What we know:
Blueprint: H1 3-9, E1 26-32, E2 35-43, E3 49-56, E4 61-72, E5 75-87, E6 90-99, E7 104-109, E8 112-117, H2 128-138, E9 147-154, E10 157-165, E11 170-174, E12 177-186, E13 195-201, E14 207-214, E15 218-228
Antiparallel strand pairs: 1-2, 1-15, 2-3, 3-4, 4-5, 5-6, 6-7, 7-8, 9-10, 10-12, 11-12, 12-13, 13-14, 14-15
Amino acid sequence: MNKKYLSIFCIFFWYEAINAFDIKPSRATLDSNVGEMQVEMKMLEDGTWKLTSLLDGGSIVRREESEVFKLIDNQIHPINYRFNQRILFRKYKASADFDWQDNKVSFVENKDKGKIDFPSRILGPSSASLQLRLDFRKFDEEKIPNEIAYDVYWKGTIKNRIYEVSDDKELIQTPLGEYEAYKVSRRFEEGSKRSQIFWLAPDLDYSVIKIYDKNDREVEIKIKNFEELG
């Protein structure tokens, strides 16, 4: 398993944590075939938000990921991103700092470092999935588009991620109950074996109730517990 699996877990902290006017600090426990993870969202003293996730597999694996961002008019503005991973004796460390005055991001990926320009709208590795849910919340259900695209910082480059939305809702069984949900599939290059699918439930304010991810291995993720903080 690699870094890609961790970022997709972060979307679950939004479960019932947002109403039409605000965001609430929260903590979620996620269960999957790669172990249990804690995901937490909190407001910092300067009014920004920090999203963190921790997977602790003892001596075998440990992963920590965090992203600090501002939320302005329904749009996420990343400020910094941090990632640390250890699998047995192999370590990986990455960071990114976003300068919104000059529209540049300074990054470190293990021993590589650099600086690149970014467009007026950019998302961090953790926040792309969060923006997807925010946008679903503002759409009229009859006007949900078939495609949604974002520019996302990823490993020293800017990637254009495209999500395809199925026309019909599916009935999805979860530990929290059975819900109708929109199936949203991330588009990959033709011939790629990668797959990443989210299911968003309108009855739960478009919370993501299930994620399927296939890369080096298949991962299915479901929320186990949720609590509001403070």
